[in-house]
Amino acid sequence: MKIDLTETNSSKINAAMVQARRDLGTPAIGMVLTLVIVTDEENAYDALKSAGDASHEHPSRIIVVIKRASRSPRSRREARLDAEIRVGADSGSGETVVLRLHGELVDHAQSVVLPLLLPDAPVVVWWPEGAPQDLAGDPLGALGQRRITDTYSAETPIEALGTRAAAYAPGDTDLSWTRITPWRSMLAAALDQQTLSVSSAVVEGEDDNPSCELLAMWLADRLQVPVKRTSSAGPGLTAVRLETKGGEIVLDRADGALATLCMPGQPDRAVALKRRDTAELLAEELRRLDPDNTYEASLKFGVARLAATSGPPAKPAPAAKAEAKAEAPAEAQAPAAKPAPAKPAKKAAAK
Q: Shortest CA distance to 85 belongs to which of 105, 67, 61, 109?
C-alpha cells in the first residue's frame, strides 16, 4: 500500500501510518528500530532497496530524508513537506516513509524526523554518500545511537578516512570497515593455528580503496609490525601476506569470490570470500548497536602513520654523510693526537 501526502506535516504522516496498518489488519508494531536514511534523489532508490532487503532480518521503520534544492529565492523561503508512505508488501518487513523537504525546512530536518521515530527503539542514521564531517554533531546524526557512512563513495576516500578519524564519536562506523569482516575473521583464525609471530605484512588491493587501508591499519595496530600497501588491479582487496620465520601466510582472492589460504606446513585450501552487496553490509551493522572499539583503534592509527611504518628507515645518502661530516666540529672529525711518552732523564754519574 502506498499513500502520497502533499504539503503535510509529521502529525498527518503518523495518523496516515496508523490508518494504513489498520486497513491491512496489522495494527501492532513489530519493528525493532528506526533507520533514518539521509540521501538525495539520485541515490534514494538504491538506498531504499538495500534498506528494504536488510529489513527482512531487522524489521524497522525506514525514514528516507531527501533534501530538495530550491532554485529561486522565493521557493527557498517557502517551507513544504511532501511524504510518501509505504506499508505491507511495498515496504519489506516494516514500513517506509519517504520525506521530501523543500525551502527553509531543509535546514530543520530533525524537527520533522523526531516525531516519526519509533518510541523506545534504537535509532540508526545512514548516509549512503555525502556524509557531514562531524556525524555526531549533525542534527540528524545526534538522533542516532549508531551512525553509518561509506567512504568508498567519497570523491577522495583516503582523505575521507582522515575526516572520519578526526571527528570520530562512539557509535560511528563505516561500510568500508564492514566489507573486511570476513578477511579479519579468516586472518585471525589462521594466526590462531600458528605459534610463530608475524614480523611484517603486505596488503594488496586497488588504489584509493578505503577497505584496503583499514585492513592494513588494523594489522599494524594489532600486530605492531610494519605493514606495506601495494597496488593491484582488483577487484577491491585481493591479497594479504603475513611474513613469519616459518614462512608466509597468504590469503589471496584474485576473482572477488573465492580465495586461497596458504599456511606453512599445511595444504592450500579454498575459502568462500565473495564481495557482499550493500544490503548484506547494512544488515551486519544493524546487528550491533554498541560502539566498535576495534574500528576506532584501527581508524585512528592513521594512513600517514601506516606509510611511515611500511619499511625500514632509509639510509642517508653518501653526499649527506659527507655534508654532515663537513659540518661537524673539528674535535669530532679526527681524534686528538696522543702526546709522546716522556723519556726518563739520564742520571748523572756520581763522581
A: 61
Distance CA 113, CA 108 (A): 9
What does the pLDDT average to over 2-29? Answer: 85
The whole-number average pLDDT for the span 19-34 is 79
Rounded alpha-carbon distances, angstroms, from residue 253 to 184, 232, 258, 271, 287: 14, 11, 6, 9, 27
Q: What is the DSSP string of 23-56?
A: HHT--S----EEEEEEE-HHHHHHHHHHHHHHTT
| 45 φ/ψ sector (left φ>0, alpha ψ -120 to 50, else beta) | alpha
Residue 325 and residue 333: Cα distance in Å, rounded?
7
81-91: pLDDT as tens digits: 999 999 876 66
Per-residue model confidence as pLDDT tens digits over 117-129 = 998 899 999 999 9
For 292, 315, 319, 323, the CA distances from 332, given in Å and listed in that order, are: 54, 21, 18, 14
Q: Is this model's pTM higher than 0.90 or not?
A: no
- Residue given cell 548497536 in the structure block: 289
Residue 233's closest CA among 255, 248, 251, 257?
A: 255
Q: How far is CA 296 from the centre of its chain?
A: 9
Q: Give percent helix, percent strand, percent coil of the chain, each to the nearest 5.
A: 40, 25, 40
Integer Cα distance of 242 and 177 in angstroms: 20
Q: For residues 63 and 248, what is the distance between their CA atoms, to the nearest angstrom? A: 48
